[in-house]
Amino acid sequence: MRKTLRAHFSVKGTGIHTGVYAEVEVLPSFSEKGIYFSYQNAASGEQGYIPCHVANVVSTRRCTVLGNGEHTVSTVEHLLATLHANGITDAELKIDGPEVPILDGSGAEIQKKIDEAGIEEYEGDDWSVLVIDEPLEFTCHTSGAEYHLTPSEAYELEAVLEYDNALLGGMKADWQYGDDYAEKIAPARTFSLYSEVAGLLKGGMIQGGSLKNALVVLDDDLTEEDVKSDLNKYISGGSDVSIRNHVINGPMFFENEPARHKILDLLGDLSLLNLRIQGRVSATRPGHTGNYNLARYLINAFYG
């Protein structure tokens, strides 16, 4: 059996990287075409489609970007992770804008919308299953991310962070597919060290980023006064921020929220394989580039 939405829903808001307002309407699909983005050219009225597949990844810098040579859609990972976690095999993602809205930086609002819309099964072949039947090791030489894959009866994900930071150093999280994604993974927000955010702001990136859609972790060598002074240059009211337990405008929802968010990203990126993994994937220092290259490695290893 395949699964799609019982009713359509929309999410709208600003893209974290472009700062451009966008809307995505998530529509039921009974065509066995999988999950795909659709769009309409504002000038010509011509429609286009981008299947959500690893073959259509065109960039992994700071987010996962899909494209078809004529059009791209950025920051697809949170939406795709949440659809995948709910077992949805087919949906049309009708997008108006260049980037999926960041919302609060997590998958929580999307999960709520799915719960409200409902899920419907229909006749057709379910995802194929990629079975990890022996230990595998993969290192992404571009990013340094390391992945250790071992046999398991379930689909398990583990994320291990390695930062030179008192809060993030050695943080880890694990999750098993089907184990209450809505409560344990969906609410985990995207995160960054303050030094990374400051650099991106100075470089003109994360135009839609704010302290409301990301966790920002204080670097060990910075003080609250340093941050407030610097933020005032980029964010209105930056001097009003507070720092609680090393998190700007904290606290975190979970003591290991950043590691849980890495699981969300990993789940979304691996969903582009259009199958379900049976096995345990343990990722150390994971990111979108490493996740994408892991997906390519798995295709080559299992399908030639």
Gyration radius over CA: 19 Å
Within CATH, the superfamily of the domain at 2-122 carries the name lpxc deacetylase, domain 1
CATH class of the domain at 2-122: Alpha Beta
Judged by helices, strands and strand pairing, the structural class is: alpha+beta
Termini separation comes to: 27 Å
- The arrangement of helices and strands along the chain is EEEEEEEEHEHEEEEEEHEHEHEEHEH
Count of β-strands: 20
Judging from the principal axes of the Cα atoms, what is the shape?
globular
Q: Architecture of the domain at 2-122 in CATH?
A: 2-Layer Sandwich
The percent range for helix content is 10-25%
Beta-strand content estimate: 25-35%
Q: Residue ranges: pLDDT <50 for 5 or more in a row? A: none
Number of helices: 7
The largest sheet is:
6 strands, mixed
Average pLDDT figure: 91
**Fold-level CATH name of the domain at 2-122:** Ribosomal Protein S5, domain 2
Structural features, described:
InterPro entries: Ribosomal_Su5_D2-typ_SF (IPR020568), UDP-acyl_GlcNac_deAcase (IPR004463), UDP-acyl_GlcNac_deAcase_C (IPR011334), UDP-acyl_N-AcGlcN_deAcase_N (IPR015870). It catalyses: a UDP-3-O-[(3R)-3-hydroxyacyl]-N-acetyl-alpha-D-glucosamine + H2O = a UDP-3-O-[(3R)-3-hydroxyacyl]-alpha-D-glucosamine + acetate. Catalyzes the hydrolysis of UDP-3-O-myristoyl-N-acetylglucosamine to form UDP-3-O-myristoylglucosamine and acetate, the committed step in lipid A biosynthesis. The protein is α+β, with helices and mostly antiparallel strands. Among the domains are: 121 residues, Ribosomal Protein S5, domain 2; 58 residues, no CATH class. It is 23% helix and 29% strand. Strands 11, 12, 13, 14, 15 and 20 form a six-stranded mixed β-sheet that branches. A five-stranded mixed β-sheet has the order 2-3-9-4-5, with helices on one face. A hairpin with a 2-residue loop joins strand 18 and strand 19. The longest helix has 16 residues. The radius of gyration is 19 Å and the shape is globular.
